[in-house]
Design brief:
The protein is of the alpha+beta class. 43% of the residues lie in helices and 17% in strands. Helix 1 crosses helix 6 and helix 7 packs across helix 8. The radius of gyration is 23 Å and the shape is globular. The model has no long low-confidence stretch (mean pLDDT 91).
């Protein structure tokens, strides 16, 4: 239900960022309009098609989809409010017409939309900084500041490492679960510009060859990345290896074991857990 006001607020800056590649791919306004027309006609009547199927429809009408052109054509159709995500076909993602899939409702005025996206971001991602919000939203710094100014009375703030962190008063002061296993590229590690509050860079040499905490399956203990983990799926079990950055207290080890058990229960498999200490 939010897609239209979100597009109205954020799409102009995304389009501006696409301009360079559009020129490289020879995608001008006339071609984009033609592509949108083809996609709209192809999907009309409640159809849900994969990206490959949309590419075939464009090619049949003489629109080249080689290289990255198909990706950009579909992206522009989404930014223009023609396409949106449809239901999955098995493991395949599909697209549908926005006007057929999402009912028309009264949209928000720009200042209302700016306040709403700011409110939702700091409620769902706080503690977070203004720079984090700018990076995540794609808004200009000026717009992000305006949004925060409108809603800051609804939030609390704390100062840490020369940064101001904003968060909802309803958020727990401490993690609800003592230890958590996160996948690589989880938003907890990806969604912030400054990760010093959750990851000590002195542990970088304990990561694998990729050298980035973003690319690792992370073990959180009380909100801090204190290790990484790997899994090996066997026929009837899962083997989990926990690579720890320092000597753990008994309570921390127990919390990691509980996290591994929760993960194994999610898979519906018995598990074994091996600890590797890198200190």
């Amino acid at each position: 239900m939010d897609i239209r006001w979100l597009l109205a607020l954020t799409a102009p800056r995304v389009r501006a960022q696409l301009k360079y590649m559009d020129r490289q791919l020879e995608l001008d306004d006339a071609l984009l309009e033609r592509s949108n027309t083809v996609l709209e006609k192809t999907l009309r009547g409640g159809k849900h098609l994969t990206r490959v199927e949309l590419g075939s429809a464009l090619q049949e009408r003489g629109i080249n989809t080689d290289d990255l052109r198909l990706t950009h054509l579909v992206m522009h159709a989404e930014l223009d409010g023609v396409l949106c995500s449809g239901p999955r076909h098995g493991k395949q993602f599909t697209y549908a017409l926005l006007e057929e899939r999402v009912p028309q409702i009264n949209s928000l005025e720009r200042h209302e939309a700016l306040a709403e996206i700011t409110r939702r971001y700091f409620t769902g991602h706080g503690p977070a900084t203004l720079k984090d919000f700018v990076w995540w939203s794609g808004l200009s710094t000026a717009d992000a500041k305006r949004g925060l100014e409108m809603v800051k009375s609804e939030f609390e703030r704390e100062f840490l490492m020369d940064e101001t962190y904003w968060f909802s008063p309803s958020q727990p002061k401490k993690p609800v679960t003592k230890a958590v296993f996160l996948p690589s590229y989880d938003e907890y590690t990806v969604g912030y510009t400054d990760r010093r509050a959750i990851f000590d860079a002195s542990h970088t040499d304990k990561l694998d060859a990729r050298g980035s905490i973003l690319a690792q399956n992370a073990i959180l203990i009380l909100g801090h990345v204190m290790g990484t983990w790997k899994r090996t799926l066997k026929k009837n079990s899962v083997v989990i290896e926990a690579i720890l950055f320092r000597v753990m207290k008994k309570s921390e080890m127990h919390a990691v074991i509980e996290a591994a058990e929760r993960y194994a229960n999610f898979l519906g498999l018995p598990f074994s857990l091996d600890f590797v200490e890198t200190h």
